[in-house]
Amino acid sequence: MTIEQLRKDMMAAAKARDKERKEVLSALVGAVMKLAIDEGKRDNIPEELVDRAIVKEQRAAKESIDTCPDSRPELKEQYTYRYNVISEYAPKMMSTDEIRQYLTQNCAEVLATKNKGQIMKTVMPLLKGKADGKDISKVVAELTK
């Protein structure tokens, strides 16, 4: 996903007078810009950085849904809408089977050490933004048994 595409979709939502969608997309653009400024990449924002910001916002939205009390259905609905819009733009994450296959093919020599810490240190940068860290950890734990 590119920042330009997010901005175009935000403008389209504004023109369509879809206030809620525009607000969600505006927040996404803001999160991307903040991350880009923090990393010193204000110009020419790479897609990888955009994807990381989207995944971070998606996690925050999911956490909002999970922590929202059942006595506030209107708030839960609002959080769910936000999560669904963000999910449209989130990169597809690898499944545990895909992670296992990737690790066995590309990281066999590190897996042979059976040192979970060393494996995670090697693998996390390779799969950052492509797979959930919890899933990676679970697969590594299975492979090091």
Please write out the topology.
Blueprint: H1 3-15, H2 19-38, H3 47-67, H4 73-89, H5 96-106, H6 108-111, H7 116-127, H8 133-143
Helix pairs in contact: 1-2, 2-3, 3-4, 5-8, 7-8
Give a quick summary of the entry:
With 145 residues, the chain is mostly helical. The chain has eight helices and no strands.
Task: Considering the chains and any ligands shown, give keywords for the structure.
145 residues, mainly alpha, 75% helix, 0% strand
Strand pairing plus helix content: what structural class?
Answer: mainly alpha
What sequence of helices (H) and strands (E) makes up the elements? Answer: HHHHHHHH
| Total helical elements | 8
Biggest sheet character: none
* Low-pLDDT ranges: none
Number of strands: 0
> Helix coverage percent of residues?
over 70%
Shape: globular
- Beta fraction: under 5%
**What is the terminal separation in angstroms?**
37 Å
Mean pLDDT: 89
Radius of gyration: 18 Å
Question: Could you characterize what this model shows?
Answer:
The chain is mainly alpha-helical. It contains 8 helices and no strands. Helix 1 packs antiparallel against helix 2 and helix 7 packs antiparallel against helix 8. It starts with a helix and ends with a helix.
